[in-house]
Design brief:
Layout: E1 11-16, H1 20-35, E2 39-40, E3 50-55, H2 61-79, E4 84-89, H3 90-95, H4 98-102, E5 108-110, H5 118-128, E6 132-134, E7 148-149, E8 155-159, E9 161-162, H6 173-177, E10 181-182, H7 185-197, E11 202-206, H8 222-230, E12 238-242, H9 251-259, E13 266-268, H10 276-282, H11 288-301, E14 306-313, H12 320-333, E15 337-342, H13 360-383, E16 389-394, H14 402-405, E17 407-412, E18 417-421, E19 434-438, E20 441-442, E21 447-449, E22 455-457, H15 460-467, E23 472-473
Parallel strand pairs: 1-2, 1-3, 3-4, 4-5, 5-6, 8-11, 11-12, 13-14, 14-15, 18-21
Antiparallel strand pairs: 7-23, 9-10, 16-17, 16-19, 17-18, 19-22, 20-21
Helix pairs in contact: 8-9, 12-13
Length: 499
């Protein structure tokens, strides 16, 4: 029995937690389901035929969040026979059959390596009226060979690699996503061109460690070459990437950023700690001097560069002196923003069994001091931009108060969030359009531009947004580009950012 009306396609929702990798994986999941005949349910629909949870396992509360949401869905499913629930992503890779044991109303559990199996697993679970659990230890197919339903008309994610070869003691990602596997440059550029052909203006290159891209085919300068190649794609206006690892950061990447016009002068480079002792315990193979040296080189080549970071507070054994060194590096680095985290013990990581686990109140106090220091700096850095003209790519969902304030929002080229007044152009500016405007006010986490926009450029991405048309990209096959029409992708058969 199915919840869909007779003859109607089954509906689905994907609920995503975690990093950019998970967001992009969810685009693949949506593309697969739509290829299999499912239709996306309206956001307000409380009883879609299929609900897919794409999970994260980096933070300790990920488990509680998933099982809490599964609990809320149980009575909904009980009232709607035929409804299916699937759990995928990093938490599924970690917990495997434990998910069905704790929540026996779950129909499908699939891992990070076999996203492409989801439609088959859903159908098999319906046929057998029994849960299907399929977790592979290595990639079934590279995710980018799968179709995608893109969420944005103007910006797209493109994976250049999956997995990670690092062994950070706090991170569970390598055990869940596997060793690094790189895509060939031709495949990546084909996907970027396909997105641009759909009207996308901005692409973010994704990898657990983008700097080590090329390790699989023996070219340590492959990432810088890839950035330069993106500069040759007509219609591609902005290129970003995340996340680099300081240990692999090379000067040729800085040169490529500075010399390729469409590569944005923004860099997200995780610090994690400013203490060399803590970095050593984290098994982060760089020290604070090297980290600051990279920033110095970036700013010498691109004085306008906005640098953001990740910082963990309360790692096992962290002393007051260690934490003080983190604050010192933050003050020297002058970040434009920072993602700050309290250390979260993850079973299966070396750090979980280390001596010196810190009391919650100590970690909380340090965390609050870190937040205060970061915001003092980001506010000062943002105030330097008051009176400056910025180019804004108009976005959806960036400004939670836009409806109340009458503003629109978007991102400047350096990644900063800008809330702006449309002035006499109100009603004409669409998501995906480009606006130039003057900054009138700065806050720690955003800029305001409350004067009349200096210019407004309508774009193909804006046209697509106005028409309600989401980009869809077919799978891009692994290997070297072929000549002629691409072969059809066969139907599946058988059975993240934390650096």
């Amino acid at each position: 029995m199915t919840t869909a009306a007779a003859g109607s396609p089954r509906t689905y929702q994907v609920r995503t937690y975690g990093c950019q990798m998970n967001v992009h994986d969810s685009e693949r999941i949506s593309g697969l389901l739509e290829q299999a005949g499912y239709v996306r349910a309206a956001e307000a629909d409380e009883q879609p035929d299929v609900v897919v949870f794409n999970t994260c396992a980096v933070r300790e509360n990920a488990d509680n969040r998933l099982y809490g949401n599964l609990g809320h869905l149980r009575p909904v499913k009980d009232k709607h026979p035929g409804m299916q629930i699937a759990v995928g992503g990093c938490l599924a890779q970690k917990d495997r059959g434990e998910i069905v044991r704790k929540a026996p109303w779950v129909d499908v559990v699939f891992g990070t390596h076999n996203i492409g199996s989801l439609p088959v697993l859903l159908e098999r679970a319906r046929h057998n009226t029994a849960a299907e659990v399929e977790i592979l230890e290595s990639l079934d197919v590279f995710p980018s060979t799968l179709p995608a339903r893109r969420e944005s008309t103007y910006a797209g994610w493109v994976s250049i690699s999956v997995g990670c070869n690092n062994t950070c003691t706090f991170c569970i990602v390598p055990s869940l996503r596997g060793k690094e596997k790189d895509r060939r440059p031709g495949d990546i550029l084909s996907e970027v061109r396909a997105l641009v052909d759909e009207g996308v203006l901005e692409v973010t290159l994704l990898g657990q460690n983008v700097n080590s891209y090329g390790v699989e085919f023996g070219d340590r300068y492959a990432f810088g070459k890839l950035l330069r190649a993106c500069g040759d794609i007509d219609g591609l206006e902005r290129v970003r990437f995340t996340s680099p690892h300081p240990k692999d950061f090379t000067d040729d990447v800085i040169a490529a950023m500075a010399e390729t016009p469409n590569v944005c002068h923004s860099l997200h480079m995780p610090l994690q700690s400013g203490s060399d002792d803590v970095l050593r315990a984290m098994r982060r193979s760089y020290r604070s001097e090297k980290y600051l040296g990279i920033i110095e080189k970036v700013r010498a080549a691109m004085p306008d560069a906005a640098i953001t970071t990740d910082i963990i507070v309360g790692f096992p054994g962290e002393t007051d002196a260690d934490f003080g060194k983190t604050l010192d590096v933050v003050r020297q680095a002058r970040f434009s923003s920072a993602f700050t985290f309290q250390y979260s013990k993850r079973p299966g990581t070396p750090a979980a069994t280390m001596d010196g686990q810190l009391p919650k109140q100590v970690v909380q106090e340090r965390y609050e001091r870190l937040i205060a220091t970061v915001e003092e700096i980001t506010w000062a850095e943002n105030r330097k931009l008051v009176g400056e003209t910025v180019e804004v790519l108009v976005a959806v969902g960036e400004g939670r108060k836009d409806e109340r304030t009458g503003r629109l929002s978007g991102r400047a080229r350096d990644g900063r969030l800008v809330h702006f007044d449309a002035g006499s152009l109100a009603g004409q500016i669409r998501p995906g359009d480009i606006v130039h405007t003057t900054v009138t006010y700065a806050a720690p986490h955003h800029l305001n531009a409350d004067g009349e926009p200096l210019s407004h450029r309508r774009t193909r991405a804006g046209d697509a947004a106005e028409a309600g048309r989401a980009p869809r990209t077919p799978g891009v096959l692994l290997g070297l580009p072929t000549i002629g029409a691409p072969a059809a992708v066969p139907a599946p058969t058988g059975g993240c950012a934390a650096h």
